[in-house]
TrEMBL record:
Belongs to the short-chain dehydrogenases/reductases (SDR) family. It comes from Amycolatopsis sulphurea. Keywords: Oxidoreductase. The keyword rRNA processing does not apply. GO terms for molecular function: oxidoreductase activity. InterPro entries: NAD(P)-bd_dom_sf (IPR036291), SDR_fam (IPR002347). This is 3-oxoacyl-[acyl-carrier protein] reductase.
């Protein structure tokens, strides 16, 4: 076991599967204890088992944008494992597709609340309860959709652009004791992104210089690096992890309609 996160506790939101679970697995492999969140307890119980059981992981079910849930997660992390040193804001939603002029504003508000406001309030919670006194590191999972127009998912992309700005602002405000960075994936093979590549993976991957789509482990390793002391002189940065697709003028594939 790599000891680089020995005696540190990480909170990873949206970690019952996909990118969040891959991040949690990498952190445990590197010596951390992890607290994982998601909406469904059954899925979290399965994730905790994959992470090695209660000696290494704790699952706390709830809505990511619920302040009481956030406070409970941070409190239980500290009570169970003794600290709350690392935070990964992984949860993101996109319940709508289409042009902005037709966007349901209720859906837009929910995207903003989960992708932006909750990503801020989690930092507020962990800062108040632990990091203000002890320091720490935060990584936010953004998207290449936040870097250029993304047809059909424009408000999701706009929320990620705001998340990138929040990352930089927090980095300025919370240094030197707390580092805040972000990672921006392109299409990663998860259930969340299935509509972007299902039944046409080879066609989508052809635009990528590395000729494949991402897998959750590709993101887990980069997030672990940003949280680690190896990135001790990095803050406010957005690392693009995209298989080179932005170099070709590509980005997110359009969902099949």
């Amino acid at each position: 076991m790599n000891p680089r996160f020995a005696d540190r506790t990480a909170i990873v939101t949206g970690a019952s599967r996909g990118i969040g679970l891959a991040i949690a697995k990498q952190l445990v492999a590197d010596g951390a204890k992890v607290v994982v969140t998601a909406r469904k307890k059954e899925a979290l119980d399965e994730a905790v088992a994959q992470l090695g059981g209660p000696e290494f992981a704790l699952g706390v079910a709830g809505q990511v944008d619920d302040l009481d849930h956030q406070a409970e997660v941070v409190e239980r992390a500290i009570d169970t494992f003794g600290s709350a040193d690392l935070l990964v804001n992984n949860t993101g939603i996109n319940p709508t597709y289409g042009p902005l002029v037709d966007l349901d504003l209720g859906a837009a508000r929910k995207i903003f609340e989960v992708n932006c406001l909750a990503a801020l309030s989690w930092v507020q919670q962990v800062h108040q309860s632990w990091m203000k006194e002890h320091g720490g590191a935060v990584v936010k999972v953004s998207s290449v959709a936040g870097l250029r127009p993304a047809p059909g998912i424009g408000f999701y992309g706009s929320s990620k652009a705001m998340l990138n700005q929040i990352t930089q602002q927090l980095a300025v405000e919370l240094g030197p004791g707390i580092r805040v960075n972000a990672v921006a994936p392109a299409v990663v093979k998860t259930r969340f992104a299935t509509a972007l590549y299902e039944d046409r993976e080879a066609e989508v991957a052809a635009d990528y210089p590395l000729k494949r789509l991402g897998v959750p482990q590709d993101i887990g390793g980069v997030v672990a690096f940003l949280l680690s002391d190896e990135a001790a002189w990095m803050t406010g940065q957005l690392l693009v992890v995209d298989g080179g697709v932005l170099l070709t003028g590509g980005g997110l594939a359009k969902p099949q309609r």
